[in-house]
Design brief:
Blueprint: H1 17-37, H2 44-63, H3 72-96, H4 101-108, H5 110-118, H6 123-138, H7 149-175, H8 180-201, H9 208-233, H10 238-245, H11 248-260, H12 266-284
């Protein structure tokens, strides 16, 4: 994707780039925690519809993308990208309804780590992925009976969708200008989620308080973090960005503990640590390229 921000950050707003990345991660996880706190009122499928649908409306209003004039191959790519986005978010929300958010984020990292391994020819990357695999095995219900088995499976499947999202995003950046592709694909994802969310929650989604919270989740989870990340990538090598992004499971666990009181066993903490180290290791070993 282009590095053009979705939200106009003030010119005097110029904190260090690593601070922007940490703020983006914290914003995303605050959005997930806010969403989970309301699952008793609106289930995960209804909440994911609100997140993706309201994010789509914000992005479409801001970016004003062109709907026409693209090649058929670009439209097929758009549908595939929107589908991966919708599936990834739906599976993740269904996962965190059953297991702690920090654990779900760590399991979801299996997707990008696998993509990194498939695109690498260095034996060291295999070592990092093996380290992450140990962490994921530790989080299996066989080793951690306190975890819901279906929640673990859903988080791993969300990782598969995240991997597909990463692979497709590079092609989207070549086919569409700026954030145009993201806005259009978010709209496609919202349309795909619409019947599922409506069937699951019905009129509850039209409640003004729920809509307001859904807008907050959309802004925290999508629009604000994307803008912060794009601003950081203008000044930060991609490998350093990846190292910082590897802190996401730990930050997710911390925020969900403070807000929701989600406690983790020592095994869970150790497993999250292994995944974090593995993600940081793979990112640190990449060539120090800069985003454009």
């Amino acid at each position: 994707m282009s590095s053009k921000s979705l939200l106009p950050l003030p010119s005097q707003f110029n904190p260090p780039a690593p601070t922007l990345v940490i703020a983006a991660i914290a914003s995303t996880q605050l959005g997930s925690t806010l969403a989970k706190s309301l699952f008793s009122e609106v289930g995960p499928l209804g909440m994911v519809l609100l997140r993706v649908g309201l994010s789509a409306l914000v992005l479409l209003a801001w970016c004003r993308p062109r709907w026409r004039g693209h090649a058929w191959a670009d439209y097929r790519l758009l549908v595939a990208f929107g589908m991966s986005l919708a599936i990834m978010n739906a599976l993740f929300y269904c996962a965190i309804a059953r297991i702690p958010i920090g654990v779900a984020v760590a399991l979801e990292f299996s997707g990008p780590l696998t993509v990194a391994l498939l695109h690498s020819r260095r034996w060291l990357d295999g070592l990092w992925v093996g380290l992450a695999a140990v962490g994921i095995v530790l989080l299996s219900p066989l080793n951690t009976p306190a975890l819901d088995g279906l929640g673990v499976v859903l988080a791993l499947l969300a990782g598969v969708a995240w991997g597909a999202y990463i692979l497709l995003s590079a092609r989207m950046g070549q086919a569409f200008r700026g954030a145009e592709g993201l806005a259009l694909s978010m709209a496609v994802g919202a349309l795909l989620l619409l019947p599922v969310g409506v069937i699951a929650e019905g009129r509850a989604l039209l409640s003004p308080p729920i809509l307001l919270v859904g807008l907050g989740v959309a802004m925290l989870s999508s629009t604000l973090p994307y803008s912060l990340e794009m601003s950081a990538l203008r000044r930060l090598p991609v490998n350093v960005f990846g190292v910082l992004l590897s802190l996401e499971p730990a930050i997710a666990a911390t925020i969900s503990f403070v807000w929701l009181g989600e406690t983790l066993t020592l095994t869970m903490v150790g497993a999250i640590g292994l995944v974090t180290v593995a993600a940081a290791g793979i990112s640190l070993c990449r060539p120090a390229a800069k985003a454009v």
